[in-house]
Specification:
By secondary structure, this protein is mostly helical. It has eight helices and no strands.
Amino acid sequence: MMDLLRAFRPVAADFLSTIAFIAVYVATGNIYAGVGAGMATGFMQIAALKWRGRRIDLMQWASLALVVVLGSATLLTRDPRFIMVKPTIGAFAIATVMLRPNWMARYMPPAVTENISPRTPLIWGYVWSVAIFALGIANLFVAFVYGPKIWAWFTAFVPISVQLSLFLAQYALLRHAVIRTIRSRVAAA
């Protein structure tokens, strides 16, 4: 179980500002409080990484840029419809970044990358990109067909559920592949 939690940590960190936005928005019903929480979380994450002297990955910069640009636009327009489109814009931007070959390598420990085909992270990266694009399209559909109340529930639960399910499937399949590879190497030796 600890391996699973350790593997999920970088993914959760990349989406922490989005998680903060959704949590505050769902808890308060106040879009502007949610936007403020998401923006503050994004800035605190980058500041913490800089303070620790850690490298800031492209996904983290992209996440911060989306939070700042789209959050500022939401606050300036004071239009709730804009915030309903925000997850789609964010999903499309993130899915586009996920089209970069081998972006997933930073999420995989050496024990995994040494025991799987080099194409495997590439394929999983594209699977993630397609899933995120699909979530963006679904967000637009729910936002404009069902309205703000259903959209708020959709946004709070569906993207996280889909991403968690995909993460768990990937984790289980990669774990199985690594164990199989290691066992076959041990048997051959």
